[in-house]
Amino acid sequence: MQTHFQTPSDMNQGLLDSAFLLIASGGEVRKETLWDHLLKVALLGYVLDDSKIIATAAIKRPMDTYADSVFTKAMSDYDYNDFNHELGYVVIDPDFRNKRIASRLCEQLCERFFHCSLYATVRTNNPHMLSILYRNGFTDSGNIFKGRVETDCLKLLIRLKRSTIPATSSYF
Ligand SMILES: CC(C)(COP(=O)(O)OP(=O)(O)OC[C@H]1O[C@@H](n2cnc3c(N)ncnc32)[C@H](O)[C@@H]1OP(=O)(O)O)[C@@H](O)C(=O)NCCC(=O)NCCS
């Protein structure tokens, strides 16, 4: 298995299609807007098994207006405008789960973006994703809020930017 970090503009159409299908299969995003949003991510991390993408995670550039932002919905003390990057599109092919693949991908993305304040939203009933976020220095912000589907309970988590490269960084 090989891990790669690329911007969408550096990826070929076959890879983008494969990433799209995996992210859509995760069931966490709206398929109608996924292409548009996927092409605008700041960096996509992905793992290849042979030539198939079996894992993705991305640093996204959020495009919500302030009023619609999750910061407003969660009633966070932080200002949405101070958070230009979101960790998301974390999806692992079901055949490859529980091998710490998501954990490693997210850790490497966070290291690469140590100089940016990051946020993420996660369902309260997703202990794997919550564990990944807490271990990478994210903390809860604001209150639990409802997602697009009324029954979805979501949490906002934030990670403030750092001014120095983490000592454990594998960035270089
Ligand atoms: C959530 C998901 C990305 C996890 O991927 P994964 O590669 O199987 O996860 P990992 O093996 O890296 O494990 C993640 C964490 O869960 C922890 N974990 C494992 N079993 C656990 C359990 N039963 N309860 C709580 N945490 C558990 C692991 O220790 C790890 O935490 P760590 O990084 O602090 O060590 C994957 O299940 C998935 O694709 N789900 C569908 C899409 C989704 O929900 N994406 C997240 C949207 S926000």
Compose a concise summary of this entry.
A hairpin with a 6-residue loop joins strand 6 and strand 7. The protein starts with a strand and ends in a 13-residue tail after the last strand.
Report on this structure.
With 172 residues, the protein is α+β, with helices and mostly antiparallel strands. It has one domain: Gcn5-related N-acetyltransferase (GNAT) (Aminopeptidase, 3-Layer(aba) Sandwich), CATH 3.40.630. Helix content is 27%, strand content 29%. It is built from five helices and seven strands, in the order βααββαβαβαββ. The chain has helices spanning 13-25, 31-38, 70-73, 101-112, 127-135; strands at 2-6, 43-49, 52-60, 85-92, 118-123, 139-146, 153-159. The protein has a seven-stranded mixed β-sheet with strand order 1-2-3-4-5-7-6. A hairpin with a 6-residue loop joins strand 6 (139-146) and strand 7. The protein is globular. The two termini are 20 Å apart. 28% of the residues are buried. The mean pLDDT is 91. Bound molecules: coenzyme A (COA).
Give the helices and strands, then pairings.
Elements: E1 2-6, H1 13-25, H2 31-38, E2 43-49, E3 52-60, H3 70-73, E4 85-92, H4 101-112, E5 118-123, H5 127-135, E6 139-146, E7 153-159
Parallel strand pairs: 4-5
Antiparallel strand pairs: 1-2, 2-3, 3-4, 5-7, 6-7
The structure holds coenzyme A.
